[in-house]
Amino acid sequence: MGFIKTPIKGTRDFLPEDMALREYVLSIMKETYASFGFEIIGTPCLEHIENLTGKQGGENEKLIFKILKRGEKLNIENITEPNELVDCGLRYDLTVPLSRFYANNMNELNNPFRAFQTGFVWRADRPQKGRYREFMQCDLDIFGEKTNLAEIELITAITTFLKNLNFQNFQIKINDRRILTSMVAFAGLPIEKADEILISLDKLDKIGVEGVEEELLKDGFEEEKVHKYLKLFQNPTQNIADFCHEFQIDDAIIHNLEEIIHMVSQNVKASLVFDPTLVRGMSYYTGPIFEISVEDLGSSIGGGGRYDKMVEKYANISVPAVGFSIGFERLVLLLKERGFKIPTNKEKIAYIINNMDEQIFKKIQEERNEGKIIKIAYRNKNFKHQKEVLTKDGYKIIEW
């Protein structure tokens, strides 16, 4: 069998122009988030299998790339269950590892702690446009802040970042997990099955009301109660109090969402609206949840929410936490499709030489010291193609 030159399906090679765009977006992100006091941290790509399969990641737990035990630990003769073959896996998001990180290092960190993390994650998903098996995630999280100051700051930071990239046509949708679970109870569906029901509801924009109904009936829920539940989402109002008046929602929950919407809208002039159909697939959310949608893409490019119970699973101590993940890959794809050009004031010069000359090295070093971008290369046989590529990359060509 010969070697294969193409990458594994669902993964990609990045050309120089692709990497330049990715690095530029990351640089704007780092600069913006640093201005809000977020600190960069890092976690391993590998995570304990117990952490990854703790019934916190919703559908993503079905998509884990699991890693076999090694050496003496892999005792096949005594294996009775498939999961006994593995002890770790590739992380499917950054929130689970981050919660473990915080539990392990909280004594050395500020309180509240503002974390910014970027890194690849892996899901054994079906590849399609904008969806990969290996992709970059960029997360903002605040630990130790129990008030909605955390949500307001996160949404403001994300909005500021998008505007710094000249994004305009985006909308932030917001809901609360507690409203969603109250609606499950109001319809007479079993509250202990709320996570399972919400996973189906989360597919509403993809499979429609009929598709969600079919899934819930297939899972054994009573038809009358399913109909009552789904009817709640027909023609919903964006007024939170009006929508929630019959579900016995605590006034504090309603006021909390209204205050987030008001403060963010006034602060950065963002379009922030209440959407009772917003779910977010992760079952670890405990309060407000939010998502960014962009008209050009027809889907979200980021989202997050409050997950106050996560750290407690690792450290036996209750720590309030809120996180927001930007869909980096979709964002870069959207910029690329729009023909986005990286702004630069630096002059780019390509010297094409026929012979080695120490004078040219002296000259280009002086120009590099002046801040210019300089390439030097021997003249190719196909000089026409060489010039075309350099010109496309923005270089002024000088033959020496």
Oligomeric state, counting identical vs distinct chains: single chain
Rg, nearest Å: 25 Å
Please give the order of strands in the largest beta sheet. Answer: 1-5-6-11-10-9-7-8
From the spread of the alpha carbons, the general shape counts as globular
- Distance between the ends: 47 Å
Q: Structural class per helix/strand content?
A: alpha/beta
SSE arrangement, N to C: HEEHEEHEEHEHHHHHHEEEHEHEHEHE
Helix fraction, binned, reads: 25-40%
Q: Mean pLDDT, as a whole number?
A: 89
Describe the main β-sheet briefly.
8 strands, mixed
Low-confidence stretches: none
Number of helices: 14
> Could you tell me the strand content as a percent range?
15-25%
The total count of strands amounts to: 14
Describe this structure in words.
By secondary structure, this protein is of the alpha/beta class. The protein has an eight-stranded mixed β-sheet, with helices on both faces. Strands 2-4-3 form a three-stranded antiparallel β-sheet. A three-stranded parallel β-sheet has the order 13-12-14, with helices on both faces. Helices cover 38% and strands 20% of the residues. Helix 1 (16-34) packs across helix 4 (149-164), helix 4 (149-164) runs parallel beside helix 10 and helix 5 (177-186) crosses helix 6 (194-201).
Q: Can you lay out the helices and strands and say which pair or pack?
A:
Elements: H1 16-34, E1 39-40, E2 46-48, H2 49-52, E3 66-68, E4 86-90, H3 95-105, E5 113-122, E6 134-143, H4 149-164, E7 170-176, H5 177-186, H6 194-201, H7 204-218, H8 223-231, H9 240-244, H10 251-268, E8 272-274, E9 288-294, E10 299-306, H11 312-315, E11 321-326, H12 328-337, E12 348-353, H13 358-369, E13 373-378, H14 383-392, E14 396-399
Helix pairs in contact: 1-4, 4-10, 5-6, 7-8
